[in-house]
User: Which sequence fits this backbone?
C-alpha cells in the first residue's frame, strides 16, 4: 500500500466523516483519490518533486489521537512578545495554553463554528474561494477537524497581533492538517503571525489551509515565519478574498524545513483595494522552498505589489512561480511583480517564473527577475576596511534582504526575525 492508498483508507477511521461536511468531504476525497500527488509534469509543480514525501511512511493525523500537554516553558523560544497566543499541540487546539482574554475578536473552534453557523456559514466561509483543482487543499478539506475561526467585529482595531503557534512532538512520522478561517469585518484591522515548530527529529509534514476574508475598508497584515527543523516539511495554502477599499498584505519568511511549498492566492472582489505580497528565503544544505502566487484582478482600479527575494547556498533550491491575472473588466489596474535572487554557491539552484496574463488595455503592469552572486568589488571594498570575508558577505546579503524585513509593522516580530537572519547569514 502506497502513501496515497494509506491516506485514503484512513478516511474509514475518521470520526467526522458523516457530519455537516459529509458531501463536501466525500467529493474532496474522491478528487484526491482520482488525481493523487502532483508530479513534475504538472506545470504548477514543474520545479518541485514530492518523491521524498511519498517515500516517507507518514501517518495521517486523526482527531482520535491522544492529546499531549507541553510545559509553558516550551512556548518561550517561539512566542513573539506582546502577542495574543493561539497554541496548537500535535494537531489539537490547546485553549489552556492559549491567551485570548480580549473582546477585540472571537476565537471559535472550527467544527463548532461550522455546526453553529450551518449552511449559511458554510456557503460564506468554508471552501468558498479555494482552488478546487489543488490536491492538497482537497485532502485537507476531506479531513478537516481541528482549527479555529478568528472573527474581528466591524470597526474594531485589534491592538496586539494574534500569533498562531503550531507545536509538534511525535514519535512516528505524521501528516497534520490544520485549517483556519480569518474574517476581518468592515473598517476593522488585524495582524496575524503564523509559526510551525517541530520539537523532535521525527519527520513531520504539515498540510495547512487558511481562508481569509477581508471586508470593505478593512486592513490585514499576515506574517508567516517558517523556521522549522530540517525534519519538517510544509505545504501551505492560503486564500485571501478582498472587498472594496481593503488592504491585505502577506509577508513570508522561509528559513527552515526540508521542503516548503507556499501557495498564496489573492482574489479581488471590489474596487480600489490593494494587495501586497513579500517573501524572503534564506536556504542552505538541501532545503527546497517553492513560492507559488496568484493575484486575481477581477475589478478595476486595484493595485498589487509582489517582491520576493532569496539567498541560496550549498545545494539548496528556491522557486518563485508568480502570476498576475488581469480580467477584461479590470481597467486601471496597477500591478508590480519582482523576484531577486543571490546564489552563494555554484551548486545552488533558483527557478524563477514571473507571469502576467493581461486581458485589459488600460493598465500599468510590470514584472522582472534577477539571479546573480555577490558583487566581488563590494566584497573587496569591505575587506579593505578590515571586515572579514564571511562578515562582509553577511553584511551585503543582509542589506539585500532588508527591503523585505523593513516593511514588517510589528516591532517585536521584526527583532525576532532580525536575529534569525543574522544567525543564518553568519553560520
Assistant:
Amino acid at each position: 500500500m502506497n502513501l496515497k492508498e494509506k491516506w485514503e483508507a484512513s478516511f474509514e477511521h475518521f470520526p467526522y466523516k458523516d457530519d455537516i461536511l459529509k458531501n463536501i468531504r466525500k467529493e474532496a476525497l474522491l478528487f484526491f483519490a482520482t488525481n493523487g500527488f502532483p508530479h513534475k509534469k504538472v506545470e504548477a509543480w514543474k520545479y518541485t518533486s514530492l518523491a521524498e514525501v511519498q517515500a516517507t511512511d507518514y501517518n495521517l493525523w486523526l482527531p482520535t489521537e491522544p492529546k499531549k500537554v507541553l510545559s509553558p516553558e516550551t512556548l518561550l523560544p517561539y512566542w513573539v512578545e506582546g502577542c495574543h497566543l493561539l497554541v496548537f499541540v500535535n494537531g489539537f487546539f490547546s485553549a489552556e495554553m492559549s491567551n485570548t482574554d480580549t473582546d477585540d475578536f472571537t476565537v471559535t473552534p472550527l467544527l463548532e463554528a461550522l455546526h453553529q453557523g450551518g449552511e449559511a456559514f458554510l456557503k460564506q466561509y468554508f471552501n468558498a474561494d479555494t482552488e478546487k483543482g489543488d490536491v492538497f487543499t482537497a485532502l485537507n478539506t476531506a479531513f478537516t477537524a481541528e482549527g479555529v475561526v478568528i472573527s474581528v467585529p466591524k470597526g474594531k482595531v485589534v491592538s496586539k497581533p494574534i500569533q498562531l503557534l503550531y507545536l509538534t512532538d511525535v514519535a512516528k512520522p505524521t501528516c497534520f492538517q490544520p485549517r483556519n478561517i480569518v474574517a476581518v469585518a468592515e473598517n476593522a484591522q488585524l495582524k496575524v503571525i503564523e509559526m510551525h515548530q517541530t520539537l523532535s527529529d521525527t519527520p513531520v509534514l504539515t498540510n495547512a489551509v487558511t481562508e481569509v476574508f477581508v471586508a470593505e475598508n478593512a486592513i490585514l497584515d499576515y506574517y508567516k515565519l517558517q523556521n522549522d527543523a530540517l525534519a519538517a516539511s510544509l505545504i501551505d495554502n492560503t486564500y485571501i478574498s478582498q472587498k472594496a477599499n481593503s488592504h491585505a498584505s502577506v509577508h513570508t519568511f522561509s528559513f527552515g524545513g526540508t521542503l516548503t511549498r507556499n501557495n498564496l492566492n489573492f482574489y479581488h472582489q471590489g474596487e480600489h483595494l490593494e494587495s501586497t505580497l513579500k517573501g524572503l528565503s534564506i536556504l542552505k544544505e538541501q532545503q527546497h522552498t517553492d513560492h507559488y502566487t496568484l493575484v486575481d484582478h477581477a475589478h478595476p482600479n486595484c493595485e498589487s505589489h509582489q517582491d520576493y527575494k532569496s539567498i541560496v547556498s550549498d545545494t539548496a533550491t528556491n522557486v518563485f512561480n508568480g502570476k498576475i491575472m488581469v480580467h477584461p473588466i479590470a481597467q486601471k489596474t496597477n500591478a508590480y511583480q519582482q523576484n531577486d535572487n543571490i546564489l552563494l554557491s555554484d551548486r545552488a539552484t533558483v527557478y524563477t517564473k514571473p507571469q502576467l496574463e493581461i486581458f485589459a488595455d488600460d493598465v500599468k503592469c510590470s514584472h522582472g527577475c534577477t539571479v546573480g552572486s555577490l558583487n566581488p568589488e563590494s566584497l573587496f571594498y569591505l575587506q579593505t576596511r578590515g571586515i572579514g570575508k564571511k562578515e562582509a558577505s553577511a553584511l551585503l546579503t543582509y542589506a539585500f534582504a532588508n527591503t523585505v524585513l523593513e516593511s514588517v509593522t510589528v516591532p517585536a516580530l521584526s527583532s525576532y526575525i532580525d536575529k534569525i537572519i543574522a544567525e543564518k547569514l553568519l553560520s
Observations:
- The chain has one domain: 3-426.
- The longest helix spans residues 389-405.
